[in-house]
Design goal:
about 210 residues, mainly alpha, 3-stranded parallel beta sheet, 3-stranded antiparallel beta sheet, about 10% strand
């Protein structure tokens, strides 16, 4: 999202990303709540999509004062979501930051057994959903300015399936494998490549 993507994934125990070293696995409710802030999600998303940034660059990207950026970066660093990149600084006053992981995940089924973790997971997931909505709204605003070559691949759809709980897990694994296949091709330094948001959701409908 420019509005920037925040690649967070609530994950089940069957999800293969649980063993991926590039994925930060969350179990601490305090870390979940620290991340469940719109500006922190935005900052972390910018670092993951664009690569390391200085405080000044992040300030320009998200239109917030440098002091505010520094505070929220500090909170992200406290829980290990970001780290300093001092080798990129041009002088002692400039501070650069990078994301420590490509993605964040947590086990939503496991969280059900712990009231504090469950509440923090819900808070974070709602904050992420607001980011998704903001990103899609931003895209709709900019779509008329894009070339037809980029609009032709855009998709937004849903389907109602009648599955067992085991089949829902199987669907999740299939979707994750598809996502990982395309992530393997992703390279922001490739000529003509641009950031693309992929959103997938599958959940039991409320009855």
């Amino acid at each position: 999202m420019d509005q920037s993507d925040a690649p967070e994934r609530p994950a089940s125990t069957a999800n293969p990303i649980k063993s991926d070293p590039k994925v930060r696995q969350l179990t601490d409710p305090r870390a979940m709540r620290a991340l469940a802030h719109p500006l922190r999600l935005r900052i972390l998303g910018e670092l993951r999509v664009r690569g390391p940034q200085s405080v000044g660059m992040l300030s320009d990207l998200v239109d917030e004062a440098p002091g505010s950026i520094s505070y929220h970066i500090g909170r992200l660093a406290q829980f290990g979501f970001v780290e300093e990149a001092p080798e990129l600084a041009r002088d002692k006053r400039e501070r650069w930051w990078r994301s420590t992981h490509a993605m964040t995940a947590w086990d939503t089924a496991q969280a059900l057994a712990d009231p504090e973790q469950r509440a923090a997971s819900m808070e974070l997931r709602r904050a992420i959903m607001q980011r998704y909505l903001a990103g899609f709204e931003a895209y709709l605003e900019t779509e008329p300015t894009l070339s037809p070559e980029w609009v032709r691949g855009t998709t937004s759809n849903d389907a109602v399936l009648h599955l067992t709980s085991d089949e829902l897990v199987e669907l999740q694994v299939d979707l994750e494998a598809l996502t990982q296949r395309w992530q393997a091709r992703s390279d922001r330094n490739r000529d003509q490549a641009r950031a693309v948001t992929l959103m997938v959701q599958a959940f039991r409908r409320a009855e």
